[in-house]
Design a protein that fits this description.
- This protein is an alpha+beta fold.
- The protein has one domain.
- Helix content is 29%, strand content 25%.
- It contains three helices and four strands; from the N terminus they run E-H-H-H-E-E-E.
- It has a four-stranded antiparallel beta sheet with strand order 1-4-3-2.
- The radius of gyration is 14 Å and the shape is globular.
Length: 102
Amino acid sequence: MAGQATLLSSRCDDNLDTHIWSIEGLRTAQEEDTDISCILKLMKQTQEKPPWESVALHSHGVRVLWSMWSRLRVHDGVLQRRFETPDGISVKWQVCVAIETA
């Protein structure tokens, strides 16, 4: 899986392979995705948002994830994004999922 990441909330289709939705499956898929793995590597190096120059020459997907830095976390080795409702009452953590592009 290379290239483009998307965000997926906790709901999923029951027909999908359950392994990919396990922590190990998600972790493996993210490690194999060039965009997500780049961000994971940067997050392991520092909690501070890296300078623009460190991602400027990377793909659009890396730059988009970098722009969300303050809303990202690594939980159980899986990259997640914080989603907060406009009223600030509800916070959900969404898994960043690797998707294949043609």
